[in-house]
Each structure stands twice: as C-alpha cells, then as structure tokens.
Write a structure and sequence with these properties.
The chain is mainly beta. It is 9% helix and 26% strand.
Length: 303
C-alpha cells in the first residue's frame, strides 16, 4: 500500500539535539531529556525488569528479524497525534519494554547493509495501540522541535559489533501505520543521507524500500542501494545529483531496494528471551534472562 501520512513535514532545526549525545546501553540515566518534558524513561531494565505491559521505556533495539522493537502509543491513539510521547514495544523480553504481542507481525524482512540495518513489514499494529485505520506517522531523532519523536528516544543495535555489545544509533527513522511498519537505523559518514528525516510525507515504501509481504519472515545481508531523495544522471559525460525537496509539487519515484543475499527464512517470529541484554555484569544479565524465561518458559533464544 502507499503510506498515506497526513501530518506536516518535520522542520529543519539548527539547535543542538540528543542526536549527538552518546549513551552507554548498560548504564542509562532515568531520563535523557528532562529539558523537553520527556514522558518516559531510559533506565528501563532497572525500572521495569525484563518487560512490563505498562512500561514507559523509550529505548529501542534493532538487532535481527527475531529481535527488534517499534515505537507505539502509550494508549490507543493516532500515532501522528502522540509522536513526542511514544514508547518502545519489542519482540524480545529483557529490555524493560512492552512486548509486541505474538501475531502482531504478519511479515517482516530484516536487512543488514554496511550503512544501516532495516526492518520492513506488515502488521496488525492496533495491537501496539495505533488507532484502527491509522494511516501513520514518522518517528525520528529530530522532530519539528529538534528534541526528537519521541522526546528522549534512544536507539541501539548489536548487529554491527559482532560480540553482543550494543552501539547507539544517532540517525534513524521509523514509519508506523495500522497495517505496516518500517525502521531504518544508520551508521557511518553518510548516516544522515541514508536516514533523512525530511521526507515524512513520502512514507515507508519510499523512504525504506524493502519487502512488505504477509507470510515472509527473513533475515538478509544487503547492499546499501541509493540514498532516498537523491537522484543522479549523466549528461555529456558529467554526473549530476539532484535532491528532491518535499513540497515542491513533484513526487519522484522511490529508490529500488538494494540487492540482498544470504537470506534465511523463518516460518514466523514470536516472543522470547533476548540473547543479549545491555547490563553491566554477567550476573545481572543472567538474572534478567532468567526472569524473561520464567515469563516465556517454552520460548527459545533468538539471535
């Protein structure tokens, strides 16, 4: 489907924001942005344990096809109306967040490229408290005020470290609608170009090309593909680049997804215990994992 966002484009803000802040996933403060009236919390494991249905955690983790999180409302609402206050919903227990109920995700593709990790898919995201028929909203670390949506939101991944440790992602974007979602988390010198935050009205497929298919659950390596909104052409042997400006009356086609390889397919995904959790000591990590297994005694670890 075409993502039919109805909210205004986020303004470019020159003020310093939390995008540049560095946080240790194993030692998070209670809140990362008290100055902008952050609703939720970041010391989530300490505050909520392995998981909690009432959690106001505002940390997200994008690790694998079986282990990822999405932003969603605290209570049933159109997500475009509550973007500054959304909270984390995760597939795996251990992070101190709310859990994504089994059956919510109808299909998902996880792709790891040299410049970003990405999940795209279909969902019944009313189970994440999006309003029925909600055509969607876009979350990013900038927002119209520069404080980010959500305020105080922090994103981590362990997909690039190779040792179970977590790194903070400073540039990311997440599109959420009642029936589909996408989340891209970018690293490297071109992170802002692969994760722009000024094309919110173009939607998930345009910003995050990938698979949005029911019944597809797969994890792949991938090529970067082309940057959203940047188009190159060669005239008389000279390569020129044009940059799309949202609101100028045109809407160029989105870029094609980068080629994928080494794809591993799964029948479905479900809740369970996170293989790694961001805690300082092995004993603490073990206790959190044990608590999560008690909640899901028959689930296997997902990596």
């Amino acid at each position: 489907m075409i993502f039919k966002a109805t909210f205004a484009a986020a303004a470019l803000v020159s003020a310093a924001t939390l995008v540049a802040a560095d946080y240790d996933a194993t030692n998070m403060p209670a809140k990362t942005d008290r100055a902008h009236n952050q609703v939720g919390y970041n010391d989530c494991i300490k505050r909520y344990g392995a998981s909690n249905s009432k959690s106001l955690c505002q940390n997200v983790y994008i690790n694998s096809v079986k282990d990822f999180c999405l932003w969603g409302p605290r209570f049933t609402a159109a997500i475009g109306d509550v973007e500054p206050d959304v909270v984390a919903y995760c597939m795996k227990s251990g992070y101190g967040t709310r859990l994504i109920p089994d059956g919510t995700i109808k299909g998902v593709q996880f792709v790891k490229t040299p410049s970003f990790v990405q999940v795209t898919g279909n969902c019944d995201c009313t189970k994440l408290k999006l309003s029925t028929g909600d055509q969607g909203g876009e979350l990013d670390p900038h927002g119209a005020t520069g404080a980010g949506n959500p305020v105080g939101g922090v994103v981590f991944t362990r997909a690039f470290t190779g040792n179970g440790s977590f790194q903070q992602i400073h540039e990311w974007s997440n599109f959420m609608a009642h029936d589909e979602f996408s989340f891209r988390a970018c690293i490297g010198p071109n992170a802002k170009k692969f994760c722009p935050h000024v094309f919110d009205l173009q939607g998930s497929h345009w910003n995050h090309p990938g698979k949005y298919s029911n019944g597809v659950f797969e994890q792949c390596d991938g090529q970067r593909g082309k940057m959203p909104g940047r188009y190159t052409k060669t005239i008389s042997g000279k390569v020129t680049t044009s940059i799309f400006s949202q609101g100028d009356g045109s809407k160029p086609s989105g870029q094609a997804p980068g080629a994928t390889s080494n794809c591993k397919k799964y029948a479905t995904i479900s809740q369970g215990t996170a293989a790694y959790v961001p805690t300082k000591s092995a004993s603490t990590s073990k206790s959190i994992a044990t608590a999560a297994r008690r909640h899901h005694p028959n689930r296997q670890h997902a990596h």
